[in-house]
Specification:
Blueprint lengths: L7 H7 L32 H15 L6 E11 L5 E11 L9 E8 L7 E5 L7 E6 L4 E4 L27 E11 L2 E10 L8 E7 L5 E7 L5 E13 L2 E11 L5 E6 L3 E2 L18
Antiparallel strand pairs: 1-2, 1-13, 1-14, 2-3, 3-4, 4-5, 5-6, 7-8, 8-9, 9-10, 10-11, 11-12, 12-13
C-alpha cells in the first residue's frame, strides 16, 4: 500500500484496502479552515513535521501508477473468547489523479448469506469528509455514511469506515519520531495527525520500513488520546514495482477483538473507470 500502500490495500482492499494508509502538528498548519495546502514548507511546518511528511510522501509516491486494481479477500473476525467468523469479499480501487483528491474504492461482501451483497463505496477526500455510501441488501437501499459516524465499526469488524481511506497522504500532518529496529528491519517511526476535524482518532503512529518504504504497523489513538487499535501489515508482495500487503491484522485493545484481512493475488490495470464507482452501481449489485 501507499504510505503504506498497504493501506492502499485497504482501499484497494477496503478500498483495497484498507488499507491501509496511511502520519502532524495541526498547530503548525497555517491555512484557513477548508483550504488545502499540500506543501509543508508553505504551511510553515517545523523541521520535524517536514521530515515526517517527506517519509510518508516517499512511500506514497513509490506506489503510484497502478491505475486500478481488483482483489478478493477473506475477513476473519475473532471475538474476545477466540471464536472466529469468516466472510468473503472483493475490493476494487481506482487510483487518484493527483494528491489533492483521493482514490475511489468499492467493497462487496460475497458470503455468508447474512452479509451477502452488502457493499461500501468510498470517494476519499482530503480535508472534507469522505463520501461513503453503504448498500444494505436486506433493506434494499443505499445509506450515506454521515461524517460524524465514520469512526464507527464497519459491518461488525474492528475496521472503522474511515480506515478505508487512511492511506491518503494529505489527510494528515506529520512528525518524525525516530528510528527503530523491529525484528531486524530498520523502520522510520512517524506520527500523523488527522487534518479532518471529525476523525475518530487524535493520532496515528506508523512504522515504515526503510527498504521498500511500506507501513508495517500503525497504532490508532482515540479521541481521549488512549491507544485504541493496532494494525499490523505483513506478507508483502511486489507487482511490477507496486507493493501490497496480503495480510492486515487489526487488534482492538479496548475489546480484545481482532479482525484479519487476508488477500489473494491482486490484479492491476483491469479497465475500471469512473463509471464503476458511482453511487448507482450499489443498487445493481447481486
Amino acid at each position: 500500500m501507499s504510505n503504506t500502500r498497504s493501506m492502499h490495500t485497504l482501499k484497494a482492499a477496503l478500498g483495497a484496502t484498507l488499507l491501509g494508509a496511511a502520519l502532524l502538528s495541526l498547530s503548525a498548519n497555517a491555512q484557513e479552515p477548508g483550504q488545502f495546502v499540500d506543501d509543508p514548507v508553505a504551511r510553515g511546518d517545523t523541521p520535524t513535521s517536514i521530515k515526517g511528511y517527506e517519509i510518508a510522501a516517499r512511500g506514497d509516491r513509490s506506489d503510484t501508477g497502478f491505475g486500478d486494481s481488483k482483489v478478493s479477500a477473506t475477513m476473519v473476525l475473532r471475538n474476545s473468547a477466540g471464536q472466529t467468523t469468516e466472510r468473503n469479499l472483493s475490493f476494487s480501487t481506482l487510483e487518484k489523479e493527483n494528491e489533492t483528491v483521493g482514490d475511489k474504492s468499492l467493497v462487496i461482501f460475497n458470503s455468508p448469506r447474512d452479509v451477502e451483497g452488502t457493499a461500501l463505496l468510498s470517494h476519499a477526500k482530503i480535508l472534507d469528509p469522505d463520501d461513503q455510501w453503504l448498500f444494505l441488501p436486506a433493506l434494499k437501499r443505499v445509506k450515506r455514511i454521515a461524517s460524524a459516524n465514520k469512526s464507527g465499526p464497519f459491518v461488525g469488524s474492528e475496521f472503522a469506515f474511515e480506515d478505508f481511506t487512511l492511506t491518503e497522504l494529505n489527510k494528515f500532518t506529520y512528525a518524525y519520531v525516530g528510528e527503530e529496529d523491529v525484528d531486524g528491519m530498520l523502520m522510520d517511526v512517524v506520527d500523523r495527525f488527522p487534518r479532518y476535524e471529525k476523525s475518530g482518532y487524535t493520532k496515528q503512529k506508523a512504522w515504515i520500513d526503510q527498504d521498500v518504504f511500506q507501513a508495517r504497523k500503525i497504532e490508532f489513538f482515540d479521541r481521549r488520546g488512549d491507544l485504541l487499535k493496532t494494525l499490523t501489515l505483513s506478507e508483502y508482495r511486489e507487482y511490477d514495482g507496486i507493493w501490497r500487503a496480503h495480510k492486515l491484522a487489526m487488534v482492538n485493545h479496548k475489546t480484545n477483538k481482532e479482525t484479519d484481512l487476508v488477500y489473494s493475488e491482486f490484479q492491476f490495470k483491469t479497465g475500471l473507470d469512473e463509471g464503476d464507482f458511482v453511487k448507482g452501481v450499489l443498487q445493481r449489485i447481486r
